[in-house]
Amino acid sequence: MLTLGIDCSAGFLSAAVAQNMRLVDETLLHSGQKHSETLLTVIDELLGSCGLAIAQVDRVCVTHGPGSFTGLRIGAATAKGLAIARNIPCAGVSTLAAIAAGASDLPGTLCCAMDARRLQVYNAQFAMRNSQLTRLCDDQAIAIAELEQQLPADSPVWFCGDGAQLCYDNMAKHANWQLAPEPVRVQRAWGAILAARDEDYACATQLQLNYLRPSQAERERNIII
Known about the structure:
The chain is α/β, with parallel strands linked by helices.
């Protein structure tokens, strides 16, 4: 079973290929939010470097939010297009769950955070329980000050995601709260593949995005109204 994973939720663009849930190769590129110009090229070059072709891909998964509104739409549109064209199943996974899956070897609470601007983050927390990655709360858009109150002060906390540094810099410095190592800190397509392990791969037309909150344009429109 050959799986193609895609993540365009932030400044980094990532694509990964896994064979029977074993990572074959992955590309992580800081494209400067030019995902629409680079994603298909990255996928083509990644598959080519593995000696594979898109015709060999059996299924596609993509992070469906939260994250950059534009990036999520580009990732989802690409995943849908590839899946529909080849009539293969597609799955969408929480970006925060994908971050956690990629960092699941770390002991303690995984505080997965993405910068939502104005000292707010998209966040979810996870921990390993009985050898299973367990979600501790739903995906949420929350102020960093409020998030700080949710975290256990007396046990290890690892900050992951592109909002990790922001959280770490704006919270009290507990000895057992620290940044996750860089290789597993940012959101990656391999994490999306891992997070999709227990998801139902279905028709790509069922893929829905989860922004968690309205876009800036929508918020400004509501203020005007």
